[in-house]
Records
---
Amino acid sequence: MSKNFKVGIVGIGAVGTEMVKVLRQRQFPCDEIRIMARSTREEEVAGEVFNVVETTPEAFDGLDFAFFAGTEGSKGASQQYGWQAVERGVIVIDNGDDFRMDPRVPLVVPEVNPEALRNHQGFIANPNCSTIIAMMAVGPLHRAAGLRRMVASTYQAVSGTGRNAIVELEAQLKDYVAGRPLSNAAYPHQILLNVLPQIGGLKAELPGFTSEEAKMLFETRKILGNDQIRVATTCVRVPVFYGHAEALNLEFDRPLSVADATSILSEAQGLRIVDDTANARYPMPLSVEGQDDCQVGRIRKDPSTENGLCLFVAGDNIRKGAALNAVQIAEALI
C-alpha cells in the first residue's frame, strides 16, 4: 500500500465514530479523513478534532473512498449522494440498507464472499450487522456442506438503533436505581429489564415479519449466492449496550459432524471458538464488545432435523457489524 488515500465519512454517530477509530487502529493508508454531516462545524470524533463539512455533491471531490455510516434503518444519505459520489470517481461503501439488494451493488463480508467485489460499479454495500455476525460462522460451513435452511433468533444491542437508544438505556438504568419513573422515546416500550421482539417495521413481502428479519433472509441468500436457502428469523432487542448474539439452527445438504464443523470454524478468519459449556465459556456480548473477531460456541448436533447443527454466535455490532467490515472492504479493494 504505497499510496495514501483520501477518505470521506458521511455521518458521525456511533458507526461514523467507530469508523474513525478503525481507520486509525488499522493504520489505513490515508492522508485525509473528511467528515461530512448536515452542517459545517468543528467536532471531536474519537479523540481527534475535525472540521466537519456540509454534505454536498462537491464535498466528495478528490476522495478515493466514501463510507456512508448509517446505523440499522438509517436512510437517506446514500440515496441522495451515493451514486453522485460514484460519478465523481469515488468508491462508495454504504452501511445503510438502501442498496443492499440492488443488483448493481455487491453485498460483501470480506472473509466470506470477497469474490463479489470483482467488477463492482463503484458502489458496495455492507450487510446488516446481524447478518454479518451470522455469516462469519455460517459462510465457512456453507462452503463445506451447503446451507439448506437457517432458523435464527437474535439478541440485539441497543447501539444498533443509534446513539439515542444508548442514551435512553443509560437514563433508564440511572432512573431505576434512583427510584425515579422511567421514560422511553427510542422504543415503544421500556428496554431496561425487558426484551422487545420487534426490530423495524412490518415487511409487506414477508407477512408478519419485520424489516430486520427480512434482511436476514434476503441478505443471506445474496451473500451465499443461493436463492433457494430457506431462512426464518426472530429479531429481539435486548438491554445490552454493544454486541449482538444469535442462536442459529442450521440444516445442510450434506452431513457435517460437530468435530468437522469445529475444525472448519477454527480455521475461519475473523472468528474465534469459545465453546466449553461445562466451564461456562461461550460467546457473550460482553466478551465481544470492542473486539474485531466474532465468537462462536455451543456447537452441537440438531436432533430435530437431518444434517443439522446448532450454534451460538456473538459479535460487536458497531465494529465488525458495521465500521470494521466497511474498512475491510476498502482494504480488500486496495
Note: The mean pLDDT is 95.
---
Amino acid sequence: MQSGSNAASPNVRVKRKITKDTVKKFLFGSKEKDGFVKMFVIYALLICIGFIYIYPVLYMISSSFMTLDDLLDSSIKWIPSSFNIQNYVQAATSMDYLRSFWQSILIAGLPTLCNLISCSIIGYGLARFAFPGKGVVFGIVILTFVLPSQITMIPTYVLYSNMKILGTLWAFVLPALLGMGINAPIFILIFWQFFRQVPKVLIEAAAIDGAGYAKSFFRIALPSAVPAFITVALFSFVWYWNESYLTTLYVHGVMTDSGWTTLIIQLSNFQSNYSAYAQTATSAVTSLNESISMAGTLLSVLPLLVMYFILQRYFVESIDRTGITGE
C-alpha cells in the first residue's frame, strides 16, 4: 500500500502544478494573451469613464420628453409617462431653429474650409522647405498657440473695427485664410507632422519628371494627407460651432445686432428668447421648465452628434494615422 501511494504522489503533484499554472495564466495571462485581471480592470475603467460621459446625454434625452407633471412626480426617474414632442416644437420655435442652424453651418463651415487651405499650405512649407528664419516662424506658430486669446481679444476687436468687418462673417473667414483662425496653430502642427512622414523620394521623383512645387503639392502631398484633412476638418468645425464668446464679440455683434447668430448663442439666450416667444405666441404655450431647456440643449448639439456618428470610423482612422494622442 505504501509503494502504491508513493507511486501516485508524483502524478498528483504534476496535476496540481498544471492546474495552478492554468489558473495563473487565466488570471494574469502570458506573453501571448492578457489575463482576466488585466482585462477586467481595463473594461471596468472604460465602462466607468463611458458612463460618466453618457449619463448626462441620457438624462438630457429622458428629461426632454417629460411633461411638467412628470418632472414633479418623484416616482418618474428615467422613462416619462408620455413622450411630449411639444417640448421640441416650442424650443425650436423660440430658437428660430432653421435660420440659426443654417447660419451655424456657415459660421463654422466657411472658416473650417479656409483653415484647411491655409494650414495645409503652411504645414507643407514648414515640413518640406528649408529657408532663413524657419525656426523663428515655427516659434511664432507655437507662441500663438500658447498665448491666451484673452490677451489679444481687445486689440483684435479694435483692428476688426477699423477694418469695418465687425458683425460680418469676414471676422472669422479672413483670419482663417491667413492661417490665424481659432486654434489654427494646432492644425498647422498636424499638417506639419503628417507631411514630414511623406517619403521625400516621391517629391524628388516628381521633380525629376518635371513637376514643380505646386504640382508636387497637389498631386502627391494632398492625396496622401486625407487623414490629416479629416482630423482638422472635424476639430475646426466643432470648435467654431461651440465658440460662443468670440462669435458674440466679432460676428453676432456686441454693440449692434448684425443678424448673424448660431444655435449656441440662441441656447445661451434661451430663457429670454423663450419668454419673447411665449409673449408673442398666438396659442397657449407651456411655461419654461427643465424639459424644454433640455430639448433646446439637445437640438443645439444634435447636428454634431449626427456628424460624429457618420464620420466616427474615418475620424478614428485619421487620429491613428496623424499620431494625435488626445484632444
Note: The CA atoms of residues 53 and 62 lie 15 Å apart.
---
Amino acid sequence: MDDHADEGWAVLERAAELKRQGEAFALATVVWRQAPSSGKQGSRAIITESGELHGWIGGACAEPAVMRQAREVIAEGIPRLLLLGSSEQFGEAIPEGIALVPISCQSEGALEVYIEPVLPTPHLVVVGRSPMVHTLVSLAQALGWHVDLVEDTDLSATTLDARSMVVVATQGHGDEEAVARAAASGPAYLGLVASRRRGEAVLGYLAQRGVPPEQLGQVRSPAGLDLGRTSHREVAVAILAELVQLRASGAMASGAVAPAVSVGIGNPAVQLEAIDPVCGMTTTAGPSAFRLEHDAVTYYFCCSACRQKFEAEPAAYLTKGAPC
C-alpha cells in the first residue's frame, strides 16, 4: 500500500474517532485534479468545527479555501461540491450544482473537492415522568436521536454538554431545581413545560435566588411551538417540532466560527486568515506565510508571485482595500 493510501486510511480512522466522541466535522475528498495541483485524487482531510485540519487536501492556495468552505458546510449541515481554480480556466463549462471557488495559484492547477458534514447525533435530555414525556421520548427516538430520560435529581453536568437539548417537564415537582441545574450546564436548548404564568414564577424565583441572568435568559417557557389548545401528545409534537426547527435553522449551533486553526497530524500550528491584496483570495497569516511589511502594515500573500507583484507596485493593489 502506498503512502497516499496510508494517509487516506489514517484520516478515516480519525473521522471514526471524532464521530465516537460526538464532535462535528467535515470530510473533504479530492474527486478530480488538474496538474500540477499538489492535491491527488482520493486525497482526504478532516476539518473540525473549531478549524483543525487533519490530512492533506492541497497546497497553500487550496487549503484555506477548503477550510473556509468546510466550516460553512458544518454550520449548514449540507454537503457541497467545489471546483477550485480560476474562472478563466473553466469559462462557462461549470456543471450545475458545482460551486466555483476562485483561487489564484502560481501552479495554475485545479481541484474538484466534495465536502460532506458529519454531525453528532442530537442529544435530548427529558426531565420528568408524565405521559407527555414518554410520547416525546418515543418521537425523538423515532428520529434516531439519542435520548436520556432522567429524574430531576439525576440531572447534572455529567449528563449534559453544550450540544444537549433539555426539556424540563417535572409538572411543578422540583421545576426550579431542575431548571437551575440544567441552565448551569449551558445546553444548546432549555425548555420548561409549564404555563406562561408558571414559567414566569419559576424564573422569578430563580432570579431572587441569584441564578445569573444569562443562564435564565436561555430558558424557553412555555417550551414548544404555540399550537393553541392541545392534548399532551400534541404538546410533545410541538416541542419536538420546535427542536427540529431550531436545529434546521442553525440557531442551536455552538457559537460563532472560531479563527482558523490548522493542525497537521502531529504538527499543530495556529493560522489566522488574511486577504491577499493582489489576487483577493483568503490565505493564512501564520509565521510561515508569504508576507511583506509596507508603511508599517503587514500584508499576507497566497504565494511568492503575488508577493513579488505587490512589492514591485504596491500602490496598484492598495486601492483594492485594506488587509484583513
Note: Residues 3-120 form one domain.
